[in-house]
Design goal:
Pfam families: Aldedh. Belongs to the aldehyde dehydrogenase family. This is Aldehyde dehydrogenase. The chain has 474 residues and is an alpha/beta fold. It folds into two domains: 263 residues, Aldehyde Dehydrogenase, Chain A, domain 1 (3-Layer(aba) Sandwich); 189 residues, Aldehyde Dehydrogenase, Chain A, domain 2. 40% of the residues lie in helices and 21% in strands. It is built from 15 helices and 22 strands. Helix 5 crosses helix 15, helix 7 packs across helix 8 and helix 9 crosses helix 10. The longest helix has 25 residues. The N and C termini lie far apart (61 Å). Bound molecules: nicotinamide-adenine-dinucleotide. The site of nicotinamide-adenine-dinucleotide has 26 residues, from helix 7 and helix 8.
Length: 474
């Protein structure tokens, strides 16, 4: 049991002011793996007070101090590698290799990248008649989801620390333990007391308390659109700045000169990665009408080779994070069938040979039209859809026929067509032919996918306020 009923406030693990606890489940075994406290408004108040009193001196720290701090954090994070991998496989159900190569590495990369950005970051510049300064925004309330326990926490925290802002974090109650290890990492790296605070609990209690707290200056939220909208509503009452990273229904445009094997590989990796629980996942695969049959055959073959099962073993796909998530994914698969799409691979029920854990079969729907529910709503599981198109203009129109705009993908050869598709998709991040991700590039969405950007210098900007001074003496 990984029971830890304390919150981390002002550099110490402290008892909760409430008595309620929450179970944390291992989604592969369906067993309780530990308990955490359901934090209260009073706990949150204490954390905000600590962050507020640590702010003036942390805001005054030098660039050099903060670069060194971020480097030390990256070192201490590396020392906890085995534990972080183990805990993320247990709480999230990510296969061990995914916990190591994706989750562990993403957290590490954000601390390193923030240190790197800071070396050349401009906190002050001269304009025609003014000096522009960028000052830390203050106390930042961070609310994170369960699908990337170290990535989403680390990108927000690293940017806040780089900017000189202090933090109160509420990690997802479904996957709280990796974030609790982060608190120990920061302590070992010598972070001053009160700069980082962590209160566990529900979105209803602690999440709402963060978004409506009068002494929090900025809320950075990642998760569902419904909760994101609630955060914005609460924050509006006292004109609090918000950054929101919400959902997506991202397109992959397969061009007519694409290598079918490679393009199908991209489509399949998008539902394999993190069991499809990825906000940027390409879940609408747009294929030229005349390629439909050969693309379907390739997808069927590749999906049949996927190893689904125990995340402690050498499988590519583990369970979904929770029973609620499993029910949601299964009901979307049923909805696709009910709406008349054809199941090319997978379908409802458990994968073959799996009897325990919150699993779903990797599922590919074809004969999908873009107005079907499975093409419009975020499923957040290993489910994708094949939609055919007539021309590239038609493909771009379908790609943009969504309320979301988080990511987009293009596969093919002709540079002009690749450019046209990449610039034509209205989304915050486009990947051409499986190009590697870039931690210095901004991450965030157009339309209902959110407001603001994370990662790199764009991420640091969110935790700063620009100030213009006219007539500043030399
Ligand atoms: P959620 O949005 O409810 O949870 C994410 C975080 O928000 C958690 O820390 C949660 O406690 C908190 N939260 C919930 N209600 C809140 C509120 N009113 N105020 C402040 N914080 C609140 O997500 P979920 O219910 O676990 O998942 C539902 C769906 O959300 C998923 O199926 C998926 O479609 C989407 N989702 C998206 C992302 C993403 O990265 N964009 C991540 C997780 C979930």
């Amino acid at each position: 049991m990984r029971d830890n009923l304390k919150h981390y406030i002002n550099g110490e693990w402290v008892e909760s002011t409430g008595s309620q606890t929450m179970e944390v489940m291992n989604p592969a075994t369906e067993e309780v793996m530990g308990h955490i406290s359901a934090g209260t408004k009073e706990d949150l108040d204490k954390a905000v007070k600590a962050a507020r009193s640590a702010f003036p001196s942390f805001a005054q720290t030098s660039r050099e101090y903060r670069i060194e701090l971020l480097e030390k954090i990256a070192d201490e994070y590396t020392k906890r590698k085995d534990e972080l991998i183990e805990v993320m496989t247990e709480e999230l159900g990510a296969p061990l290799k995914v916990s190591e190569n994706v989750h562990f590495m993403m957290g590490y990369s954000h601390f390193k990248q923030a240190a790197e950005e800071l070396r050349n970051f401009s906190f002050s510049e001269k304009r025609e008649k003014s000096t522009i300064m960028k000052e830390p925004i203050g106390v930042s309330g961070l609310i994170t989801p369960w699908n990337f326990p170290t990535n989403q926490t680390s990108t927000k925290i690293a940017s806040a620390f780089a900017a000189g802002s202090t933090v109160v974090l509420k990690p997802a109650e479904i996957t709280p333990y990796a974030a609790m290890i982060l608190a120990e990492i920061f302590e070992a790296a010598g972070l001053p007391k009160g700069v980082f605070n962590l209160v566990n609990g529900t979105g209803q209690e602690v999440g709402n308390a963060i978004s409506s707290h009068p002494d929090i200056d900025f809320v950075s939220y990642t998760g569902s659109g419904i909760a994101g909208s609630k955060v914005m509503e609460n924050a509006a009452k006292d004109i609090k700045k918000v950054a929101l990273e919400l959902g997506g229904k991202s397109p992959l445009i397969v061009l007519d000169d694409a290598d079918i094997k490679e393009a199908a590989g991209i489509a399949v990796s998008n539902i394999t990665m993190n069991t499809g629980q990825v906000c940027t996942a390409a879940t609408r695969v747009l294929v030229p009408k005349n390629m439909k049959a050969s693309f379907e055959a390739e997808m069927k073959e590749q999906v049949a080779q996927l190893a689904v099962g125990d995340p402690q073993q050498d499988n590519q796909i583990g369970p979904l994070v929770a029973k609620k998530q499993q029910d949601r994914v299964q009901s979307y698969i049923q909805k696709g069938i009910d709406e008349g799409a054809t199941v090319l691979a997978g379908g409802t029920g458990n994968p073959e040979g799996v009897s325990k854990g919150y699993f779903a079969k990797p599922t590919v729907f074809t004969d999908v039209s873009n107005d079907m529910t499975i093409a419009q709503e975020e499923i957040f599981g290993p489910v994708t859809t094949i939609i055919t198109y007539e021309s590239l203009d038609d493909a771009i129109e379908i790609a943009n026929d969504t309320v979301y705009g988080l990511a987009g993908y293009v596969a093919g050869k002709d540079p002009e067509a690749l450019r046209k598709a990449a610039t034509g998709i209205r989304a915050g991040q486009i990947t051409v032919n499986a190009a590697p991700s870039d931690y210095s590039a901004p991450f965030g969405g157009f339309k209902q996918s959110g407001i603001g950007r994370e990662w790199g210098d764009f991420g640091i900007e969110e935790y700063l306020e620009p100030k213009a001074i006219m007539g500043m003496p030399e």
